[in-house]
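During the second half of the funding period, the structural biology subgroup turned its attention to how the target accommodates small molecules. The most pressing case was phosphoric acid mono(formamide)ester, which had performed well in the primary screen but for which no bound structure existed. We therefore specified the complex as follows and requested a full 3D prediction, including the ligand pose.
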Amino acid sequence: MSPTDAKRPLQLNDNGQLRHFLSLDGLPRELLDEILDTADSFLEVGARAVKKVPLLRGKTVCNVFFENSTRTRTTFELAAQRLSADVITLNVSTSSTSKGETLFDTLRNLEAMAADMFVVRHAESGAAHFIAEHVCPDVAVINGGDGRHAHPTQGMLDMLTIRRHKGSFENLSVAIVGDILHSRVARSDMLALKTLGCPDIRVIGPQTLLPAGLEQYGVRVFHDMQEGLAGVDVIIMLRLQRERMQSGLLPSQGEFYRLYGLTSQRLALASPTAIVMHPGPINRGVEIESAVADGSHSVILNQVTYGIAIRMAVLSMAMSGQATQRQLNQDVEEQN
Ligand code: CP
């Protein structure tokens, strides 16, 4: 490892371009704006009769999902296909990992098949970062969600949804509601909103579902929906992450819905032009009323469509950042 390698953030190359996409923490505003602008340009590809561009022709993208997923896995597959890459999706429940093979050995085998990019979802926080540190240097790693740590492409598709519906982040009030404690989406959203200059970020939830250290995200904390939703422009509802929850954090789902469920009555507390978002999967009658999920303020399905464009942007930018780094390394070698 050279002295420059030691100082450089893992996910950026020597020119400050993306080469892995692991977390939004520490990424500069210009880079987030570039992802949003690139995704905007890819939305048009999805509206064409032939939904393909040749940017990743000859490249292999390997989706490795150790945790269930519907939206992230399929939209990464579509994104890679629309960029003309070859795509493999490893179903971990039927792979050799379930026969005792370590994560490390599985990845070494995939590397041997000459994959250029890995999209990884894992139940352990830090898994994508671990893989990026150990994978061979030419391979890009994209985090498809790791434990309760980060879900950076979800964070960016949420930002694209807000920008397309509200124009910009200045003067916006955004409320994130529910199980913040276990939510990688909430962490990625808070980081992105702060970096993009949103002046009023609110989190609303019971004390038992709020993590310590929320002040680092520059958010205001509310325990009451009436106060927290007053006049907001954007409401981001979260799923109760029961799979990550210890018992005793909630009296019952019914009690949670009574206090924190987004009903039509509560939506009326927000701005009349407020949008309602949810990363999915939604639990009707647990965190959101059906009439709200399917109503005119809901942009939940638009989020899924924008997710394809965001994932096309991230895949193409990381591939290009890897190629630039290879060239920079080659230039240095030739000089020595
Ligand atoms: N939003 C999200 O990550 O959904 P999936 O778990 O279906 O991928």
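Two results from this model are relevant to the next phase. The chain is about 40% helix and 15% strand. Residues 1-7 have pLDDT under 50 and may be disordered.
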